[in-house]
Amino acid sequence: MENLLRPLIVVGGSVVLTLVIGWATDFLLRKADEQHHETPLWGLLRRGRIPYQLVLLAALLRGSYDEAQLLESRREGIGQALTLVLIGSTAWLVIRIASAIVETSYSRYAHSRAQRDPARVRRVRTQVTLIMRVVSAIVGVVAAASMLLTFPAFRAAGASLLASAGILGIVAGVAAQSTLSNMFAGFQIAFGDMVRIGDTVVVDGEWGTVEEITLTFLTVRTWDERRLTMPVSYFTSKPFENWSRGTPQMTGTVFWHVDHTAPVDAMREKLRDILRQCPAWDGRAYDLSVTDTTPNTMQVRALVTAKDADDIWTARVTVREQMIRWLTAEHPYALPRVNTSDATPPPSRNGHRPSQDGVPHQQRRYHGSTRPDR
Question: Helix, strand, or coil here: 157?
Fold first, then answer.
């Protein structure tokens, strides 16, 4: 009977104690979160409840398993497994705690500067994201190394591994040259303020918003919700457009091809009326000018301003659509036309219309004879 109750008491007591401590800790964090609305730290720490309970359970079972006297022949293997679980759950908990602290610091900074300096907030967000990835990678590597060192075979081979670390490092560096260059480029982007999460960029003719930045790749979400995944080394070696650098204010252009008889002055007044009714226009400036001509049309360009890239797109499409609609309704003659016949020349002084080669139609010869003009 004692051999049966002892394992139940040890294992069951560890599980019950873990659940009670986990519930009590979560209850205290919830109360702290309700009382301190100015900081999200306590609410974010609640995300670590599962790894926290795993750490408690693994530690209790590892310390009391010898007293349970359960599966004596498998004691070393079970103890090894509990140690691995303890190391892994501890690394998981450390990452959750670090993430909560970093996100709390960023949220406070973003809340205080979101209105005054949004570009700086996006820069800090990019840096924080990359820092958290580096911290997670370091903790993961340390945890994996700690797990491997719990095996005697790896401890015995440690000296030879350290002795050959220099050669292995050189070989790995040559083999992973592109990966390492992308990693260094990721740090350069994060701390060089070249591009940030949320920036509006144009890459290879594609317009989009930077959605994610890692140590090796960068994701751009295009206007049609496609994702362009590119190595970060691209942004350190090739030119690209960043519409969010400096002030977010932008100037956009709209072009029309109209007939030479189009009322330019009336179009300029109509542009002013359209922009006054357009919420995307920031009211800074507008203009309409004839920028080019062709034998059949002339090119008219409108300049509009807006506070950011999204609004400049809205203003451009609004102006383009409403101007075409107004020309169609009020001045249809101003739309481009294709000439299907020659223009009629004015009559000459003697009352005859000259032909294109300068010879009156009455004197033009057809197959060797003179035929009167009809």
Answer: coil
